Amino acid sequence: MMTTVVVLYYSRHGSTLSLARQIARGVNSIPDCEAMLRTVPEINSSGNNADDPFITIDELKNCDGLALGSPAWFGNMAAPLKHFWDQTTPLWLNGDLIDKPACVFTSSSTLHGGQETTQQTMMLPLLHHGMVVMGIPYSEPKLHTSETGGTPYGASHVSQMNSKLSEDESELARQLGKRLAKMARQLKNVSN
């Protein structure tokens, strides 16, 4: 049985999308695991000019794991992503996400753009939903050597007006995706 990991992101200029794709590559590299790339709409727009389909509540409910990504907006997750989470009360009431593994990722235009606080704000709804939140352990060598993005809270990218990820950022994102997929597969097998 296939393990499905939703990689849910909001991206305005492409940096967070680039991280999402690397996380998805990591997920897809694990046997019997597949990544489902999804995004959220702008709050004041009904059109879809996004690279990936919009997430549905049912897709979130039925996933086996979740990677959640947002650019750092004043040290917080972007409003469109927060708006989506504000609509997940029915999942919370039913406990649909309890014990599912999750991780977070972010991008900012500067090194001190609020990456870690953004990652922490994204963790809050996940914790309230009872999800098992994971980061990147220091056993990952690139976490020690990266001079741009990458935190123990999750994958990250410093764009400085460039959406291209560094090799360290790409590797850390892929490793986070692999770790999430392995945990999702393991937890799914235990519950079945």
Automatic annotation (TrEMBL):
It comes from Vibrio ziniensis. Signal peptide: none annotated. The gene is wrbA. Its EC number is 1.6.5.2. Residues 5-181 form the Flavodoxin-like domain. It is an enzyme of class 1 (oxidoreductase). Keywords: Flavoprotein, FMN, Oxidoreductase. NCBIfam families: flav_wrbA (TIGR01755), PRK03767.1 (NF002999). One of its GO terms (molecular function) is electron transfer activity. Its cofactor is FMN. GO terms for cellular component: membrane. Belongs to the WrbA family. InterPro entries: Flavodoxin/NO_synth, Flavodoxin_CS, Flavoprotein-like_sf, Flavoprotein_WrbA-like, FMN_Rdtase-like_dom. It comes from the Bacteria. This is NAD(P)H:quinone oxidoreductase. It holds the Pfam family FMN_red.
